[in-house]
Amino acid sequence: MKCFLMVHRQSLERHSLKVSFYSEADTLRCSSLFFTVHNNRSPHMMMDLRILLFFVTVPWIFCEPARTSKVVPKHKGILKIVDDEELISEGRIVMEAKKPKKKVILSADYDNQVDADDEGPGADKDDKELPTCLMCVCLTGSVYCEEVSPDMTTVPPLPKETAYLYARFNKITKITNRDFADIATLRRIDLTGNLISEVEDGAFSKLDQLEELSLAENKLVKLPMMPAKLVSLNVNHNLLKTKGIKANIFKKLTKLSYLYLGDNGLEAIPLLPESLRVVHLHNNNITSLTDNTFCKGNNTHYIRYNMQEVRLDGNPITLAQHPNSFICLRALPIEHYK
Q: What is the pLDDT of residues 166-217, one digit of tens each?
């Protein structure tokens, strides 16, 4: 606020007397002027000077707060009054004006706001999930990525709650340990009809809930370790040979009921778990059987009750030459008997 006072009186000489001030020093100078005039003027003039002094002093008292403020130019021709602590430089004003606004998102309870800059590591994952569900069909707990265009060459990032993945007939070439590392809820994976030639050993073995796995119609030459709760495994139509299958890989799977190894290049039948109900070994290169392949050669009373279906058709073997190899089975294997 700016204080200004003008007093205009006609003097005896008919000249104008103007008094104005902006500070305490100006006021003191005005007071000295009044006392000088006081000594040289008549009583009538003294009365006028007292009135003048009154109008000079009172506004000065009320203008005290304004004198302690600073005047800062804001725009052309306009004065802006700010206190000491509010005084800021033009440079800072410009920089703050250019500072981008933070993106504000709502938390799950819709009550608390969270800055986008403070989003945790999960944010990156969320960004990756969205393109997957644009390319594929995402339902509750299920992801369908079949014959995706453009070609899908790797396993896409999956929502954390995924239980069933169907990624059939794509161009996936390899399964790594990272592909399913964070998806502990998976129960079924179907990768039929891809170009998979390699699966890292830890890709499936840590999936504790996985029950069904299909890698049919791929280019596998070796099988990875399997999870303990696996119930069904389908690796039909691959390039598997006996050396590509570890000796006890199936024997340790105590819940495995359905095993499909048809249309490969196996020379011998691997050790099979007691839990098996169906095993398909057709169209391989199996040339021999032993008494312990399906039965227990030293126990003629042993019966394999769980086994319901065995396919050995399309192999260069004559089952009639190995009668003791399936004596414990409730049904004969499917094959040509000559």
A: 999 999 999 999 999 989 999 999 999 999 999 998 999 889 999 999 999 9
Strand extents, DSSP E, the chain? 9-10, 16-17, 70-75, 78-82, 104-106, 113-115, 137-139, 142-144, 164-166, 174-175, 188-190, 198-199, 212-214, 232-234, 258-260, 278-280, 309-311
Tell me if 212 sits within 8 A of 231, measured CB to CB: yes
- pTM listed for this prediction: 0.62
As a whole number of angstroms, the distance between CA 250 and CA 271 comes to 7
Question: In which element (H, E) is residue 128 found?
Answer: helix 122-135
- Alpha-carbon distance 156 to 132, whole Å? 6
- Cβ–Cβ under 8 Å, residues 145 and 135: yes
If you search the block for the tokens 């440079």, which residue do you land on?
91
- Give the 3-state secondary structure of residue 93: helix
Task: Write the pLDDT tens digit of every residue in 36-93.
Answer: 444 555 555 666 667 766 666 666 666 555 455 444 444 444 344 444 444 344 444 3
CB 204 within 8 A of CB 180: yes
Alpha-carbon distance 243 to 70, whole Å? 90
